[in-house]
Write a structure and sequence with these properties.
Layout lengths: L11 H10 L3 H14 L8 H8 L8 H13 L26 H22 L10 H9 L49 H21 L5 H16 L5 H24 L3 H18 L2 H17 L3 H15 L5 H17 L3 H16 L16 H14 L3 H14 L5 H17 L3 H15 L5 H13 L7 H12 L2
Helix pairs in contact: 2-3, 2-4, 5-8, 5-10, 6-12, 7-8, 7-9, 8-9, 9-10, 9-11, 10-11, 11-12, 11-13, 12-13, 13-14, 13-15, 14-15, 15-16, 15-17, 16-17, 17-18, 17-19, 18-19, 18-20
Length: 487
């Protein structure tokens, strides 16, 4: 790329940070290029480019912000372009930032919604970044609560993605665009009815996700966030209403991430989870923030990043302490156990499972349980235990817990039952019960064919990979025939 003429003063700030980060010039250039790809930019910097920056040359455009983000991820603390001795520029939002203010959080997540609504195929290709988990989880844990979220008016602002934000309510309407009387306009006051509607929308999309998979209505949810929720966040509201609004936004954004995760758009899902975490902080809801971290941990487990998954689960535990209801504590301990299991850490996994079972036993019928934790019941705990024992190749215990979960779990949780059925099939296979294993897996494969869930398909494929040593056995041939008949 074309650079400005070199300045005479060497950039000692950048040199010091390169040394602290342990980057070579080529290594820094490569990381800037990779980060640029996350934003759809083809930068093509090299070690010579970095040498020029060190001599005082200023990168053009948004590159200073990208360089700052590279160092932020590497060093685990927030750095700006000015901290690197570079010119200030508008921020470049990749969706992995933990915003400094509620207003910035709305800009970032609103831009993400709009981009996803308009070009979701491109976003699905964004890679999951384990390093991108560190700064947001740390900032959530040690960051100061937002003192104020109320909005008396909506200022005009241009989000980083380039589309103008909605104008304030006092702006004259555009005569070229007709607006129905019922349509929400920017700057409109948020009401209790709006908040109730957001909760209902969440329940609807959660139900569709559970029954039919994340791909069934994900795009409809994203469009709802863009066209209905963003105008509310840019509307007017008092402090109490604002906190509730941000709580609803956190919940729906986490759900958008969950459905993205289910269709294997893992980089996009990660960005939704990070923004849901920041919105939960604006809501002042520490417990829900821990739930978002657990969701991030589950994705990391699924992708095989056990170490990062364990760290996220422990940060969630530190963030809420022992004040959370027993069911929430059970959920957090179970998430840590899953991380240890995928790493093959038997002792640590067992200890976490014991803590999970003890906290579940301490729950009482009269306990106040957040709505998002009510689905974590005995069936879900048995499911977690089954997965852990499967990963540790303790197949007899895995089979016992998977059977218990299937016995207790409601049919409305169709995808969760499918996963558990595959865990049971895998356990039966590990115990040498080939006929039962293939029968269970064939049932699950039939269910997966009716869903729009990449995770469901991957569970079935994982079982099929385990069948390879038995490929000539009659039950396996029968299984393959049944699956082939599904098309």
């Amino acid at each position: 790329m074309t650079e400005r003429p070199a300045q005479r003063t060497p950039n000692r700030q950048l040199a010091a940070l390169i040394a602290e980060a342990g980057f070579s010039n080529a290594g820094l250039a490569r990381r800037v290029d990779q980060l640029g790809l996350e934003h759809g930019l083809d930068l093509r910097y090299d070690k010579t480019s970095v040498t020029r920056w060190l001599r005082g040359q200023q990168p053009r455009g948004t590159t200073p912000a990208l360089i700052a983000e590279v160092f932020t991820r590497r060093l685990g603390r927030r750095l700006t372009a000015q901290d690197l001795g570079l010119d200030a520029c508008a921020p470049v939002y990749a969706g992995l930032e933990f915003a400094a203010t509620p207003e910035e959080a709305v800009d970032i997540v609103g831009g993400l919604w709009r981009k996803d609504s308009g070009s979701h195929a491109e976003l699905r290709k964004i890679a999951f970044t384990p390093a991108g988990l560190v700064v947001p989880s740390r900032d959530w844990l040690i960051g100061r609560p937002d003192e104020r979220v109320a909005r008396a008016e909506v200022p005009v602002r241009i989000p980083a993605q380039g589309r103008p934000a909605p104008p304030r309510a006092t702006t004259a309407p555009d005569p070229s665009r007709r607006r129905t009387a019922a349509e929400r306009v920017p700057g409109q006051r948020v009401t209790g009815g709006d908040l109730a509607a957001l909760r209902s929308v969440g329940e609807l999309f959660r139900s569709l996700d559970d029954r039919y998979g994340g791909g069934h209505a994900r795009q409809a949810l994203v469009r709802y966030l863009e066209h209905e929720l963003e105008p509310m966040l840019r509307g007017t509201y008092g402090e109490q209403t604002g906190r509730r609004l941000f709580a609803a936004a956190a919940d729906l954004t986490r759900l958008a991430g969950w459905t993205s995760y289910d269709i294997a758009a893992h980089g996009l899902a990660q960005r939704y989870f990070v923004q849901a975490l920041r919105l939960a902080q604006a809501a002042g809801d520490r417990a829900y923030g821990s739930y978002v971290l657990v969701t991030m941990s589950r994705q990391a487990v699924y992708l095989g990043h056990g170490r990062e998954a364990g760290q996220l689960a422990r940060v969630a535990q530190q963030g809420v302490g022992t004040s959370a209801p027993p069911v929430v504590q059970t959920l957090l301990h179970a998430a840590e156990a899953r991380a240890h299991a995928v790493l093959g850490e038997v002792r640590a996994c067992t200890a976490a499972l014991v803590r999970a079972e003890r906290t579940m036993e301490s729950a009482r019928p009269g306990d106040e349980v957040p709505y998002w934790a009510r689905s974590f019941d005995e069936a879900q705990l048995a499911d977690e235990l089954g997965h852990c024992h499967r990963d540790l190749q303790q197949f007899r215990a895995a089979a016992q817990y998977a059977e218990r979960s299937l016995h207790l779990r409601s049919p409305v949780h169709a995808r969760s039952r499918l996963f558990c059925r595959i865990v049971l099939a895998t356990a039966r296979l590990g115990l040498g019960e080939l006929d039962q294993a293939c029968q269970l897996a064939a049932e699950a494969a039939g269910q997966a064919a009716e869903m729009r869930s990449v995770r469901a398909t991957e569970y079935v494929r994982d079982f099929e990979r385990r069948l390879e040593p038995y490929k000539d056995a009659a039950p396996v041939r029968g299984y393959r025939d049944r699956v082939a008949a599904l098309g």
